[in-house]
Amino acid sequence: MLGSILVLVVGVVGFALANPCPVCGPTVGTWSGWSEWGLCSQQYGAYSQQRTRTCSTGSSNCYGADSESIACVVQRDPVPSPPAVAPEWNSWGSWSGCSASCDGGFQYRQRTCNTQCGVCTCVGPVTDQQTCNLQPCCTWQDWSPWSECSVTCGSGGVRYRTRQCSCGNCGAGETSQQQSCSSPTTCPTTCNVCQNPPPPPPPPPTCNICNQPPPPCSACGYYGRRKRRQALTQRKIANGHVDMTA
């Protein structure tokens, strides 16, 4: 009896496996493979990438989501750098003051290099110089010899000497000098008397005989010659002569 029951059960199971019952209701579908990730785009303030898949039955009988997303970072194109500018010199600065006012000096000027990297690679000198104020300096010439002393005897005299400037302006300095001097000759004691002019001659007498010719010798002898001599003497006195021997 038991054996008959086991044979019956095994037979039923084998029949069921060989002839399965049809499933009632919709068929469960299968998903296709995922697509490639899409571009990184902004949605709701955040950047993300998406990919999708489709159900093989064309319906929603597949279990799971048909899309998924991941966060992403936008790879922005780098901002192009400005083209490099070849370094070049800026304009020269102003000339400095001359190092000398005359006889030649030097003055200087400078320039800077215009470069983006801050390192000067310009070709050429940074500093320039030139000569200036080449005119000769004004100088005093040698003093002239001293002049003669202003006195010929004794002391109390003055003598002078001069000098000239080699050009227009020699600055501080004097063009002439003077100093006291004396003569080696001693003045005579009557020097003041000697220097006085002689007194004027006395006025001629107002006698009438002075302007008359001498009388002729009317008589020979002592008395005639004496009268003639007196007349000639009076005429010489009137003319300024003092020789009484005439």
From TrEMBL:
Identification of the protein by name: Hemicentin-1
Pfam family of the protein (one): TSP_1
Signal peptide (from-to): 1-18
Transmembrane feature ranges: none
InterPro entries, alphabetized: Compl_asym_regulator, TSP1_rpt, TSP1_rpt_sf
SUPFAM superfamilies documented for this protein: TSP-1 type 1 repeat (SSF82895)
Keyword tags: Disulfide bond, Repeat, Signal
Source species: Panagrellus redivivus (Microworm)
